Amino acid sequence: MTGGSTGLVIGLGQPDRGDDAVGPTVARRVAALAVPRVQVVERADPTDLLDAWAGHDAVVLVDAVCSGAPPGTLHVLHVGAADVVDAAAWTATGRRGTHGWGIGEVVALGRALGRLPQRLVVLGVEAVQFDHGAPLSPPVRDAVPQAAEAVLSALAPAPHGASPPCA
Fold first, then answer.
1. Rounded to an integer, what distance in angstroms lies between the CA atom of residue 76 and that of residue 70?
2. Crossing angle between the packed helical segments 138-155 and 22-32, to the nearest 10 degrees
3. Of 27, 90, 112, 123, whose CA is between 20 and 30 Å from 70?
4. Is residue 47 part of a domain?
5. Does residue 84 fall inside a structural domain?
6. Where are the alpha helices (DSSP H) in 40-97?
7. Is residue 116 helix, strand or coil?
C-alpha cells in the first residue's frame, strides 16, 4: 500500500458454526497485530461485502471453502477484471447470503457495478465441518497462523509495474 491508502481484511463467517468461524478467527489474529493502515472487520453475510470494501484500495477476504482439497488447505485467488470466483466451492460451505447470494455472485455484481477494490484477494481455507456450537476442526485451527501470514503477504504492495501472481 502506498501513501494514505488503506487495506481491509474481511473475515467472513459465523463464529458459532465450526469451521465457518475461520474467516473471523483469521481476521482477529490479523487485528491483534495492529498493522498500520490495515482495517479489520468481520461479516456474516456475503451481501454485506460491497459496502464493507467500499473506499479501500486493497482487500483480503477470508472465508471457509469446500473444494474437496484436504482440510486446512489454503486457496488464494487474486481477483482481476476477468477472474471468476468458483461459486460452487463456497456454496458447499452453506455460505449463501440473503436471497441465495454467495461470494461468486457478489464479486460478479461488484465487477458489473464497478465496485470491486483495485486489489481483491480471496483467501479460502478448506473446511470440513459446520456444526452449530462446534469449534474449529484441528486441521483448520492449525491453518490459522499460515492464513494470517497469507493475508499479510496479500496486503503487501506489488513491485512497481508488476501484477500479483494468480494462485
1. 15
2. 50
3. 27
4. yes
5. yes
6. 49-53, 87-91
7. coil
